[in-house]
Amino acid sequence: MPETHVRPQLVWGPKKLPVPFAAAWSGEEPDISRLIARPFGAGLAYSDEQPEDRDEQGVLWARLSIAPGSGRPVFEAMHSVRQREAMLHRLCQVCGKPAERTEQGWLFLSQYTELTRALQDSPDQGFTSKPPICPPCARLAVRLCPHLTDPVVIASANPRVWGVSGGFYVPNHDSKAVPYPKDDNLPYHQHPDAERWFLASQLIVHLTRCTPAAI
Ligand SMILES: [Zn+2]
């Protein structure tokens, strides 16, 4: 995957609010113009595909330009490359520095409803697309982020890469790839026939050995 090389904390507005490292910016543009359906049902590809277009599991990712600081921050959306980088390297989604393991594990901040839905069946585990967060940034986000109306902080002693979220595409009669109108989540290696028609945009992590955390 491409390196983003961006670490300085970007700020926004007259109050110079910190913009999370993983947040998307309006000037970062998607580009799937070269997305094609390979012949004989071989799945999706880009006509000029580069190695960084696929992740370590071989799944194709949506292209999005990397230009943090351009346009306006889109606080409610995450940039696919920085989101994946933060998940894989356990970087704080706000400051972009290593999130550091606490005594209980790595901290994950989410909306209460989002996590409890996942935690319903097994209270000590869940799934999230929100990268980890360091304690000072968690305190900051709870105080400042307008999208976190009902925040909860969970510590996971063993967060594991589970799969991707994104969407399926199907080939049309021109061998073009057209989106199947529904976002979805796909676990790695469970559905190889489906996986080759999937365009990923976020990495999903399975949080195990979870406990509520105070920040
Ligand atoms: Zn941080």
Strand content: 35-45%
Distance between the termini: 32 Å
How many beta strands in the DSSP annotation?
Answer: 12
By secondary-structure content and strand pairing, the structural class works out as mainly beta
The total count of helices amounts to: 4
The hetero compounds bound to this protein are: zinc ion
Q: Based on Cα principal axes, name the global outline.
A: globular
State the major sheet.
6 strands, mixed
Which bin fits the share of residues in helices? 10-25%
Overall structural domain count: 1
Which H/E pattern describes the elements? Answer: EEEEEEEHEHEHEEHE
Radius of gyration: 18 Å
Mean pLDDT: 89
Summarize the structure in words.
- There is one protein chain.
- The chain is mainly β and 215 residues long.
- It has one domain (10-26, 34-212).
- Helices cover 15% and strands 38% of the residues.
- The chain contains four helices and twelve strands.
- The chain has helices spanning 80-89, 112-119, 135-144, 192-195, and strands at residues 10-12, 17-19, 23-25, 35-38, 43-46, 60-61, 73-78, 106-111, 126-128, 151-171, 177-187, 198-212.
- Strands 6, 8, 9, 10, 11 and 12 form a six-stranded mixed β-sheet that branches.
- The longest helix is centred in the middle third of the chain and has 10 residues, at 80-89.
- The protein starts with 9 loop residues before the first strand and ends with a strand.
- 33% of the residues are buried.
- The model has no long low-confidence stretch (mean pLDDT 89).
- Bound molecules: zinc ion.
- Zinc ion (ZN) is lined by residues 92, 94-95, 97, 134, 137.
